Every structure is written in structure tokens, then in C-alpha cells.
Amino acid sequence: MKIIGWNCNMAFRKKAEQILKFKPDILVVSECEKINEQTSKHLWFGDNQNKGIGIFSYSNYDFELHEMYNDSFKYVIPIKVKGLLNFNLFAVWTKKVDNPKEEYIGQLKLALDYYATLLDEPSIIIGDFNMDKNIEIKYGYQDPARITTVCGFLNKKKIRSTYHIHYNEKLGSETRPTLFQWKKLEKPFHNDYCFASDLFIKRLNHVTIGEFNDWKEYSDHMPVIVTFNDG
């Protein structure tokens, strides 16, 4: 199974061909324009029809919004995925809000607290978390708006970052950025993640982060491409 998370920086319809070259089974796209028809193969959530979050299946996996979905956490979306593997998919795009505790990754932490029982089931959490450990330290972000807090919480649930497992790197010492702010090579950050339960970690095959020169034309974010063995 190949799952890809990518913040496309809007106008996905004009860029879809580039990401579909990688043949994802499941694709989670932040800053994606509205999908008019909600089906078991694609879902969309957002307040702005030009800038929401889209979830797509290009294989035998089907989707269904989980009955526990809480609109208070609009951009942390629990989805039941059915296919060769059945699991909960959390599609994530955190945003800037007025309340500092709910800003960016703070939204995700509060949502994970709410969905804690679902995390005891096989789960994948993927998307644009909008937080880098070095930014967290530099600007003094406090709980719950900290990537270290989220990682600690998920580790207790035996849900870990596929990137850090695959490359054996520590949080805050990533050598492959997922964001180049304002498309500037000198402003790299690691803001996009894919976390997975042990069921998937044991099947982890490869993690690829897109290269700046390949993607700068399309977005300031690089795709996160994660492949798991099905067997």
C-alpha cells in the first residue's frame, strides 16, 4: 500500500498529474479545492471551496467518514478505510487560529485526545501538521501546540513517525525538509508527517520526501510518500 500526503498549495486540479505519477493507493491533499461529489473513493472537507482537504483512493480501498467525527476539529478527519487492510485514517491539515493552545498542531493534539479510543485500533495519521521542532523551540510554543507533545502522546499509543523510523533520525534533526517556506531553499522545515500503528510500522517498506527542485513549481511543500508491504 502506498499512501501520500501533500499540501498542494491550492489548484490541485492543475497539479494532480504530477503526484499521480507516483501511483498512490491513497492520497491526502491539503489546500485542495472542493470535490463536488462525496463518494467511497474521494472525500473533501473545508470552509473555503478553493482550499480544504481532499482524500482520494486510486485502488481497492474505500472510505467512510467515521461516526465519531467532531466538526470542532474540522481538519483532523477520522476515516474508516476498508480494503486489503482495514484501518482508521486521520487526514490532517492544521491551521492558524486565534487561540494559541489550538494553533496549528495544538488542534491535532486536542483532536487526538478526543479520538484516543480510535487510536487503539490500527491507524495512520498523515498530512500537514504545520510544526517543526526547531520552530517550536524558537518561538516557545506551549502545550498542547508542540510536535514533541504529539509525538510523546502517539508513542504511548505505539504510533510512530514513519520518516523517523525509516531514516533513523531524531525529531528536530531531520535531513530531508518537507517545507521550503515561500519556496526558498534557505528556509527549510520538517512540517509534514505520516504516523502509523505498529501493524504498519512492521510492514514499512520505504519513505520518500520530494526534492525541492522537482516540486518548487507546484508547491512550497514536498510530498511525503510512504509504502507499506501488504502481506
Keywords:
single chain, 231 residues, alpha+beta, Deoxyribonuclease I, Chain A, 6-stranded mixed sheet, 32% strand, globular
Cα shape: globular
* CATH class annotation: Alpha Beta
Query: How many alpha or pi helices?
Result: 7
By secondary-structure content and strand pairing, the structural class works out as alpha+beta
**SSE sequence, one letter per element:** EHEEEEEEHEHHEHEEEHEHE
The CATH superfamily label reads Endonuclease/exonuclease/phosphatase
Question: Do you know the CATH topology?
Answer: Deoxyribonuclease I, Chain A
Return the domain count: 1
Question: What about the largest sheet?
Answer: 6 strands, mixed
Q: Proportion of β residues?
A: 25-35%
Structural notes for this entry:
With 231 residues, this protein is α+β, with helices and mostly antiparallel strands. The chain has one domain (2-228): Deoxyribonuclease I, Chain A (4-Layer Sandwich). Helices cover 19% and strands 32% of the residues. It is built from seven helices and 14 strands. The strands form three sheets. Strands 3-4-2-1-14-13 form a six-stranded mixed beta sheet. The longest helix has 10 residues, at 105-114. It starts with a strand and ends with a strand.
Brief account:
The chain is 19% helix and 32% strand. It has 7 helices and 14 strands.
